[in-house]
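User: quick one
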Amino acid sequence: MLDNFIAPYESTATQRLKDAGFVTLGKTNLDEFAMGSSTETSYYGATRNPWNTDAVPGGSSGGSAVAVAAGMAPAALGTDTGGSIRQPAAFCGITGLKPTYGRVSRWGMVAFGSSLDQGGPMTQTAEDAAMIMNTIAGFDPRDSTSMDQPTVDYTATLDQPLNGLKIGLPKEYFGEALDDGIRQAIMEAVKQFESLGATVKEISLPRTELSIPAYYIIAPAEASTNLSRFDGVKFGYRCDNPTDLMDMYTRTRSEGFGAEVKRRIMVGTYALSAGYYDAYYRKAQQLRRLIKQDFQAALADVDVIMGPATPSTAWNIGEKTQDPVAMYMEDIYTLSVNLAGLPGMSIPCGFKDGMPVGLQVIGNYFDEARLLNIGHQFQRATDWHSRKPNV
Amino acid sequence: MSLDRSQVETVAKLARLKVEDQELDNYVNSLNSILDLADQLQAVDTEGVEPLANPLDATARLRPDTVTETNQREKLQKNAPQAEAGLFLVPKVID
Amino acid sequence: MQWETVIGLEVHVQLSTNTKIFSGSSTAFGAEPNTQANAVDLGLPGVLPVFNEGALKKAVAFGLAIDADIGKRSFFERKNYFYPDLPKGYQTTQLEAPIVGPGHVDILLDDGETKRVRIHHAHLEEDAGKSLHEDFHGMSGIDLNRAGTPLIEIVTEPDMRSSAEAVAFAKKLHTIVTAIGICDGDMSQGSMRFDVNVSIRPKGSDTLGTRTETKNLNSFRFMEEAIKLEVERQIDVLEDGGEIIQETRLYNGDTKTARSMRSKEEANDYRYFPCPDLLPVVIDDDYINSIRSTLPELPDAKIERFIDSYGLTQYDASVLSATAAMADYFEQTTKICGDAKLAANWCMGELSKFLNQQEIDIADCPISPNDLGQLLARIKDDTISGKIAKTVFQAMTNGEGSADEIIDAKGLKQVTDTGAIEAMVDEVIAANQGQFEELKSGKDKLIGFFVGQVMKASKGQANPGQVNKILKQKMQD
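Assistant: Done. Structure below.
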């Protein structure tokens, strides 16, 4: 759809990196329009996981994760609508941070779910992520949803000790869906934090499972209209020899979009259509408030929430492409963070059968500095982040 | 709620997507499995809950009414599938 | 059967902001195609809208001018449909929580009665681009300069009962939006466009008939013609035993015909939902009051004042306050000549006739209020008659100088010398001895003939009052 498109403008995030002297090495692969959890739906073909080239790297920002994991680039950017930074970071054994909604400008990022999308760093270490955040975070007058809040120096607090840190473990993140090897790695990591002075308690995020249906209504609904501008008029692909307007629209969009994108446009269109809006979209947005309230209640009690980033490690290419719902279920631990707009980070914390496991750390609004501090302290005490795949 | 073939066709038309006959059943099945998932929402009591459109419940910031843009037509139309005399061309528009 | 017409209007008013509603592109009219359409206006991937404070201020000002509730928390929604002049595939508009809530506009009817038209609401939205149908190898050209121009769409209740009422309402609305400076009011540039919803029902019925919507009428005249035509059509259909189909229609002002719009007929499902790229617009009483304090005198208040302080009729006051420019012109002219009624008559008469004939705006009128006031002052002080004044006015429009200069140069000063007039009267009597005898014997209507003859002899410069007086003396002699 955008094969030949040359953006006549620069995104705020990349512009800020350029201005700070960062050099762009290249663009990386991702699921088409960021819709996927495996980087298999790309127009340019599937990306492979450097830890096992038969496995997916996760998605949608799979290309960025692989570039960093395989040492092709020290840092990459990703966008995260439902886990697209944290899940590939977990699958590829790197650090990925999804900031608070509104912390990093969305200007110049192709919109997927506008109220969920957030760009963030994918790096080898939390320290590197803090340096990228220092550059890309901050208010942008071109993005109405960008928050006019002062930024902090994210590197300044990296060395703070974790004494007295209160960690909550949501019991819903450790249910039957969770792979035992991952459970083991996460609990080891939690022990590590206890040895660093943190205290741990069980908490509850009762609507975790409902975040899947809520997300898979809201994100496709927003996407379905965000993608209406891909109509073959002003930019991008247009079908050959359209016979009339209707033919131009339908063929351009049917030929230009891949199957998963079309499926989500269809779901979103239906969810917004007359007679179903209240039952689907509005209901999902109501549930979203309840999910946010669950997090707020939990975060009144603990400083951060920890759990697995994913229920399983990277699966094999092709394994889940026929069953979209099975793929959606893999996002269970990441979606609710986007629905609530909170910051979330995945850091490597072990391996299961040779594949990386990611620990997810969820913080309060605009508390990215604390997440990075936690990540840095963990990475000083462990070496999971410095293990490299054989490539 | 579940969708039948003709509803899927209606939705496709609204979205300006063409679903070939051989794809139709596939679409019906996968959309229905997604909607089955979504139907879990119906069991939740959301009476009186204000929908959350923006996660931070933020409100609008306004832009001063000052012209900041200059003519970029040439640059912007480089990406156009078909343009002539400064116009984007499309198949004839019939009111 | 006696039918009653029921009309509701949707009026699109372009707000006269410098920039578009969600981008910093200029809204100036008449630029080369697509030179005022930036990445946001084109809806390129990854771009984002930011709301223009100028558009908010103007929308709130409108709400205050029609005594409406102002939405303290309004938000934008996306109205989804595909059309080439709609770059994003949705129009950003307001449905659930518009900026302006219920209000009203009072109009003056021909019978002198005042009628209140209720406004259901007015919402902010972005304008679409334009499709140009000139032939480009059988294709249409799309110009997106207009895309994103801020509009308020004003939606009335179905309160109007004739095309005349609808036009009176439309004109009053034009007066309001130009008076408060939120719209330039230039209909030829599409600054105000009307969609008319028309239905008919048997007189006395209180249920509404099926309505049709005739879209995009851009002049008062077209609106009036389109309504009349549609009412006739609906009566014909119903009286022939047919049924009115709810549809969108298009009126062609050149051929004076209308037709159904096929392309809009397919079932639309606009899938409205709150735009996630824009946040709710929240304003408080202080903000609203700050805008209230900037409002100029509103048209209704002006009409009242013209009646009270100048003794004008309701009709004259309404006509003169139809535009702020005319109202100001009238007031300044009055100040110079000291006679409001005279100034009113001239502004509505000779001056308006001249402006219409020349098709010029009052702002570009070569005769200033000061010029006109001095001319009228010469009527007041009997230097010239009203009739001669028209000749002087004509000369003034040709740039021949000020009123006094023209009166002097052409020797148009009224003859008030009793002796001179008496001499002329005597001459006329002498030439028409027979008629004069008839006049004296009671054929009163001949007086007009004699006055006329004397005026003719004086080339219009004799004071008609004096001529009359002298003639009457002669009859008694």
